[in-house]
Write a structure and sequence with these properties.
single chain; mainly alpha; about 75% helix; globular
């Protein structure tokens, strides 16, 4: 697969991902993050299973000893990442959530530093610090005093935790991708994550009757499952193999660009100077990080 095709797929995936907080806002009145996430990944798992069924038999087999790794990917990339963002957008705007997601590649760099002892260059470290500053500007809405006065909202904390879960999914997935194809990894991670989610759907039982009868909700979950999760996750891991986790995660800086536009058009959300300033710092940090040559 050519690098240009990989890059194009990443850009389209970012457009899909920018819709996650927006659909989350549209479904927030149900207060059913577990049910929505489970419905989304039921669609994703079925779609991926159909694609995998057309592959050679060896592409469908995994070693039992690797099953815990797939459950870890399912926990981080499916359960925590999605449930936390759905919870978060009940308390914060979709455009703010999308800008916070731009910090994911910074978190990947931090995890590489802490877990794998991979030191970025001086330029990369400078970009990392600038990006962290930009994230702080966004989550505090430019009010730095909020850091010491419990002023950061619950929604921002939940979205930050969601972004950190995806960063861990990216870093750990690099190890599993050394053994299996991106399609195999994404399918089994989606399957394991869905199995982990299903017991928690009972916590949303009060909302289930109305959610199940909402045709628009089903369409949104189908979009999130088939395009956002199945194709988006598959293309992301294909990119991790082709151009590296650091560079792939840097493309996520496109998510807030699409997200701000989509949120304004679909939700009528207003932007603030702090949102633009913080987003600009995050993008500048990502640019420096990517130019540092980290993978």
């Amino acid at each position: 697969m050519s690098v240009k095709l990989v890059q194009l797929k990443l850009i389209v995936a970012c457009m899909f991902w920018a819709m996650t907080p927006i659909f989350g806002r549209l479904l927030a009145h149900y207060h059913a993050p577990y049910a929505v996430a489970a419905g989304r990944f039921l669609f994703a798992t079925v779609g991926l299973a159909l694609i995998l069924a057309m592959q050679k038999p060896e592409a469908r087999r995994i070693a039992w000893r690797d099953l815990p790794q797939f459950f870890l990917l399912g926990l981080t990339g499916v359960c925590l990442h999605n449930v936390l963002v759905l919870m978060g957008v009940e308390y914060t705007q979709a455009n703010r959530a999308n800008v916070i997601f731009a910090s994911i590649s910074l978190m990947v760099a931090l995890l590489d530093l802490v877990l794998l002892r991979r030191l970025p260059s001086v330029r990369g470290m400078f970009g990392l610090l600038i990006g962290i500053l930009g994230t702080v500007v966004v989550v505090t809405d430019g009010q730095f005093s909020a850091l010491g006065s419990n002023g950061i909202g619950r929604g921002e904390w939940l979205v930050l935790a969601s972004a950190a879960s995806w960063a861990l999914y990216s870093v750990w997935g690099r190890r599993v991708l050394a053994i299996y194809s991106p399609l195999t990894v994404v399918f089994y991670a989606s399957l394991c994550g869905t199995l982990l989610l299903l017991p928690f759907v009972a916590l949303d039982r009060a909302a289930l009757p109305s959610l199940m009868l909402d045709g628009k909700a089903w369409l949104m979950m189908a979009f999130l499952g088939c395009l956002n999760s199945a194709l988006g996750f598959l293309w992301y891991y294909q990119a991790v193999v082709a151009i590296g986790a650091m560079t792939s995660s840097a493309y996520i800086n496109l998510v807030p660009v699409f997200g701000i536009v989509f949120a304004a058009l679909l939700l009528g959300e207003q932007t603030s100077l702090a949102l633009f300033a913080g987003g600009g710092l995050v993008i500048a940090g990502l640019f420096l990080l990517e130019r540092s040559g980290s993978r």
